[in-house]
Amino acid sequence: MRTAGGHALTENLAYISSIRQIFGVPQRQGTHFGGGFMRFGSIITGALLVLALNIGVAAQARSITIKTEANAQVFIDGVSYGRTGEDGTLKIRKLSAETHTLKLRCDGFKEKVQRLPPTAKGEVTVPLVITKDKAELKFQEAGRLAQIDREKAIAAYAEAIKLRAGFVDAYIEMARLQNDNADVLAAQKTIAAVRRLRPGIAEVSAVEARILKDGGYPEKAIAAFKRAIAEGKGFQPEAYTGLGLLYKEKAETAGSEGDLDAEKANYDESAKYLKVALKQLGSAPDAIVLYQLLGLVYERRHEYPQAIALYKEFLDIFPDTPEATSVRSFIVQLEKQIAETPKAQ
């Protein structure tokens, strides 16, 4: 998932879209996980609180359909929502009733950025203009190559930078690919170069944090993710996701060492950051994995009503995804577990 400039937390090997491969969503069969550090609280109170929160969020949400060229990448506030179909449309099921920034990228066309006011609902038509800009066309070529040959894609991004001085998006995409290609030194140099060009870009700090995390420096990664959030003025779903995952890993390590207090504290931090990331992602495809990760954290905290409410929200937004069947089974198992849990006297 990426934010700010040329994004994709999906299409161009973005951070969150690769979570499933990098971190994995554990496969669950039979009973669900337990953290072993909390007593089962008040089921009814928890369920009512979650329901009230969900009603409030739902009241603010809207759906829109973007209509433009076929196979265009759609970004809202820097978050990838996927590509338009052959008919040039993409439906966005859940979008907060605020002003957003819409960005469209389509091979052979000039990138288009425009505001989405709170009044925008239903079908939003956005015409695109054919481009002959060599740097933009090379950037688009690099995006296509990224799916099949990282080395060639990196070279194409470097060429795009030569063709357009200060091509920030090309620097960011190149750094991501270099890191994915295990060339950490090159990725760090690219990040340093773009930071000199344009300091204070939230996405640059988020990419730097990922490089630090992958390099085995979790504390430095946490600091960089938090800097990204500050630079994004509070909006940086990639950074919130990274923090949520790092604290989840810390909780799992503490649990394996028998430090139940640290396990609980880190799961609390993980849930805090993942909830913000989900809110900022809305119905973007990257949210599919995060719903499952946050649900797992709730389960490990023995917050079963919250987990059930979250999974039901997932099914409202993503009812036809391949993951929906598994999520329905999670709900059934949790409801059975609640029914079998003795209530506190």
Short synopsis of the structure:
The chain has 13 helices and 7 strands.
Give an overview of the whole structure.
With 345 residues, the chain is α+β, with helices and mostly antiparallel strands. The chain has one domain (16-340): Serine Threonine Protein Phosphatase 5, Tetratricopeptide repeat, CATH 1.25.40. Helices cover 55% and strands 11% of the residues. β2 (73-76) and β3 form a beta hairpin. The radius of gyration is 21 Å and the shape is globular.
What keywords describe this structure?
single chain; 345 residues; alpha+beta; Serine Threonine Protein Phosphatase 5, Tetratricopeptide repeat; 3-stranded mixed β-sheet; 13 helices; globular
